[in-house]
Structures are given as C-alpha cells and as structure tokens.
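Minutes, project check-in
Item: structure for the 427-residue chain
Input as provided by the requester:
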Amino acid sequence: MEHLTQKQIEDYSQHRLAAVDLLAVGDHVAECEVCRAQLDAGMNVDAAFFAMHGEALGQESGAHLTTGQTAAYVDRNLTGESLQEADDHLAACEQCTFAVEDLRAFRNQIAPSLDREYRPAAVSSPGAAKESWFARLGSLFRVAPIPAFGSAAVAVLLLAFVAWMIWRTPKEKQPEVVVVAPSPVSQPSPPSEPLVSPPQPAPASVVAQLNDGGRVLTLDQEGKLSGADDLPPAYKDRVTKALRTQRIERSSQLQGLSRRSSSLMSSDNQKDQFSLLAPVGNVLMSDRPAFRWTTLGGATGYVVEVYDPQFKLVASSPELTSASWTTTVPRGNVYSWQVKALKDGQAITAPRPPAPQAKFRIIDQARANELARAKRTHASSHLTLALLYADAGLLKEAEQELRLVQRSNPNSDLARKLLRQVQSLQK
C-alpha cells in the first residue's frame, strides 16, 4: 500500500473505516512513520479540545504524556522518577487522565479473553520512534470524548481490532508468557453409540409358509402373498386362498360322476359278478381313456360299451380276451360305460344293480390347453399345478403334485393337510 490519503487519515481518526480497510490501514501505519505522523497530527483535535477545556478551568496545559508513556503507565512499567512525573502530571491534566482511564478500562475488558499474558510490543530497531501497538491503539482511542466515549459501535470495532492485533503478535515477535499445562491423562474413548435406525413398522405375522420348487410362498396376516411374483394374478389368487383357508374345495367337474349303491336291488347269483376298476367317478386329462375291470371266472370274452349322457352308444369294443381296452372319445362330456362278460353262451353285465353306474368326464379342449401351458410355464410351482388340477377335477394329477410339495416340506402340517384332502376326494 502507498501512503494514506487525507480521506483515509480522516476516516481512520473518526473510526469510519470498514473492518477490512481498518485492518489494512492499521498494518500500514505500524510500518510507515510518515503516515503515522500524519495520523497523529490529524488526531490532535482532542488535544485542542482539552487545551480549551483546561484554559476555561484555569489549568495549565504543559507537556502531555506521550502514547508510549500512557501505555507504560497503564502496564505499570514506569518506575522511579518517570512514575512520579506521570503521577504529578495526571493529577493536573484531565486530558491525560481520560486517556489513561480509557486505556486501562479497555485493557481490563479484553485481558480475560487472551490466551497469554498481555505485554506491550518491544521497539523493533534502536533509536526508532515507533511506539508499541498498544500505545498506538491508545492514541486511536483518545479521541474527542463526546463522539468516542458515547458510541457503542466504535467500542465494538476497537475491540475487534485489538483482538486481531493480539492474534498477530507472533509476527511482531512480542514476548509471551507460556503456561505449560500437564498433559491430560488419556481416557479410553467411550464406545460409540450404535446408529439407531428410525422405527420401522412391525412386519405382519406369517399365516402360512411353504417351500415350493425353489421358492418360498409366504402369506402374512394382511393377506399379502410373497414368493409368487412370476405367477399371473388368477394363479396368485388360488394360492392365496389355499394358504389362507388351508383347504382344497371339491371341483364342480366331479358333480354327478358317482353315487351310492342302492340296497333295494340285489343279484340272485353273487358268484357271477365282476367289477369295473377305472375310470370310475373321476375326470380324465386324456381323451383316450384306458378301461380296466376284474375278470369273471369261466368267461371266454368281454365287450366294452361307452354311452353319452343321453345313453347313446359312442364306442364299443370287439370281443376281448383281456381285462382292459383303450379308445378315443370326444372331449368335454360325461360318459358311462359297462362291460359284458361272455360265459356259457350268456352275457353277464357289470356294473349290475345295486352297484351305481360307472361314469367319468373328459375335460374340454380349452381346459386341456390351459393346463398344458401352465405345466410348461410353471413346472417348478407344484402347489400351483396341484390347485389347477384339483379345480379341473384331476385329482390323481393334483395328488402327485402335492406329494412333491410335502417332500419339500416334510415337517409342514399344511402340506400334509392339503394332500389328505385331495386323497379323500377320490374315495
């Protein structure tokens, strides 16, 4: 920075500089004696004020204490004759008394906040007239009493400036009193507090759970099904219902396929009886049913006849020597069938009253296509396939899938319960 302008000197003397400019000007004044002299000359307004004040009161002005003497007096660094001269002068000079009291009060206000004992700066070079920063600050503080002593803003600004200058004292190599405190005994750091996660809503309790082909199907109390994301909504609904109710309902496709034997009708010759084995009272996936029956002693041949619901013959076998026969019939119908055993030139028919008719159903083509597609797409979900088969009335196929479910859940009461239900529906 070059020498201070007249405006900077006036603003500095009247404390009108901003904080940043005040620090810069303070640094420059500390190094430049020319600007410091101009600043001192500009701040002699207060000296004229006190001279007029002394003349009015009949006091002699005399030579006032210099800033260095004022600072030394406040710091109690004057001794002997110098101290006596300062005391005598202060007893008669109101101007210097104001300066000493102001500087002492200001020093006492900021001293408790310092980390080291306060000392005035030492002279940097022999014979130099440079004053300590405390003395220079004292000269800045001794302004006209009316504007300076009544302005809180100026006091705050000076306090900030003093604190900044004290912080910078190592740069000017001020002596400092170092207090060495004993090193504190290291204490084991307290265990860090575990991070506390925000409270989470408690999960709904599990109602049912089954391992199913590499997945875990779980139904909670709120009815939410987990582990079945790959299933279509209709299949999810079936699984959810089965897990919630723990039941497999009887299919409507089984309606009318079986009835109890009648005790009102009987046969005269029990030895001329044989029975039909399958299909009896069940639904078939294939449209090629395999008919099986027991043999009749002494029979030379058998003839199978298949009828539609209107008792119209839709298929008839040739005379057979074995007790089985396979043929193709149209899908989507309920059929009844009988076997005639040829013995001693007579035809003995089974079933005979009081045995009920032997009936079966072939599922329609649409249901057959759906089941074939589900078998390809969801082959690993044995519970899903079991429920689809059971709904179509295919109880044997449903039983096979539920056995696989039970194998994956050997300790599950639910798996055993579902399997027993399907088995009971076949009786």
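Outcome recorded: Residues 94-110 form the longest helix (17 residues).
No further action items on this chain.
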